[in-house]
Amino acid sequence: MNKITHLIPAHPIFFSMTDFWITLCPAYKSEIYILKSINDKKIYECKHENVVVLEYYSNIDLANKIFQIVKESDISIFHSLFFSPLVKWILLLKGFSRYFDKITWIEWGFDLYFEDYSSIKTTIFSILKKITVHMFEKKIPNFVAIHPTDLKSYDHVIQGAAFKQFAPYIEEKGIPEYLRTFQKIKISEKQKNGIPITIQIGHRADHILNHKDTLRKLSRIVRENIKLYIPLCYGDKEYADEIKKYAYKIFGNKAKCQMELCSYEEYIRNISEVDIFILNSDRQIALGNLHPMMIMEKKIVIPKKSVLYDYFSSFAPLFCYEDLETCDISSFFKDVDMSIAREKIIEYKNIDPKESWEKVLKNIVER
Q: What's the helix, strand, coil split of the chain in %, to 5?
């Protein structure tokens, strides 16, 4: 029997999936390692004896633990290559390349993208990261995308020769009833009745969402009957404070910056009141927001250069972010028919993840 190990970063989203991986294929012996920094104060309670939380003290300690796990496994599945370029170089120096054939990489959105940097220090870091990708990621023989757009991104960014597969992000199968029965109020109806149009900017505090550029472009409609909803409750706190200050400076009490975490149910209630969602990023991101937004038939604004624009514009009438600064204001507030997009997302979310991932795992074992 093949010994399969899963290496998972200590993050609530990944940890919530451990039950799924344990029960996916009982025929295979699976062990899950949650790799947790000693500085991470969160407590992860394991329900299964073959789920182990491993704490590491440094990059060297993490590299040593990864090396040993992979060495003793038949198949090692990495849930995101979440560790730093330094850890990858330590592994390479230890002779890790002889174990690449054992590895499957299940990507996460941020795995496949390089950010643009301005300072000398961060530019050097970006160059080193690209060299690391050539020496590490490109050598991994099995790649699994969690969204169709990431297959194309792998070819563009990694340019490797991995055996590529797709299986959907693991979440509750089907569509919650409150989304199925949601009744949208058109933007034109709200305007007619003097109700403010609610615009959501991004979904977290992260510079890759370019909040300031979005707020600057929206400043031309500051006198319109609008409200801004800006979720900043997780991510970079310093960045969140900066964006909050900038938003209030331009829009005053028309802006609502959510700084505290809330339940998923409360968040869905918040976004159900949104009319227009602006996602100003080039990469695959925020699917947990885009999917319910499209099911509720909200208007979506995405940059044309984004990989998500290419994918979603094939069935959804997206508004191009680049037009935001120069377009006629009435076109920004114009209603769009998202009914086809709604049906496409419902169809996508009804894909059985268990069946898809069983096929992926079978292909990995049999290769």
A: 45, 20, 35
Dump pLDDT digits (tens) for 122-168.
Answer: 567 677 778 899 999 999 999 999 999 999 899 988 999 999 999 98
Q: Are 115 and 208 in contact (CB under 8 A)?
A: yes
**Over the stretch 313-331, which tens digit does the pLDDT of each residue have?**
999 999 999 999 999 999 9
Measured over the CA atoms of residue 36, residue 361, residue 4 and residue 163, the dihedral's sign is negative
Q: How is 91-138 classified by DSSP, letter by letter?
A: HHHTTGGGGGGGEEEE--GGGG------SHHHHHHHHHHHHHHHHTGG
CA–CA distance, 214 with 203 (Å, rounded to integer): 13
Please give the Cα distance from 338 to 336 (Å, whole number). 6
Number of H helices, E strands in the chain: 16, 13
Amino acid in position 58: S
Sign of CA pseudo-dihedral 156, 161, 167, 170: negative
DSSP state of 304: T
With a CB cutoff of 8 Å and minimum separation 6, the contacts of 35 are: 7, 8, 9, 10, 54, 56, 62, 65, 66, 82, 83
Residue given tokens 């340019």 in the structure block = 159
Q: Is the pLDDT of residue 174 over 80?
A: no
pLDDT in tens, 207-253: 999 999 999 999 999 999 999 999 999 889 999 999 999 999 999 99
How far CA 314 is from CA of 35, 226, 309, 310, in Å, comes to: 39, 29, 8, 7
Helix 287-295 and helix 339-349, axial crossing angle in degrees, nearest 10: 130
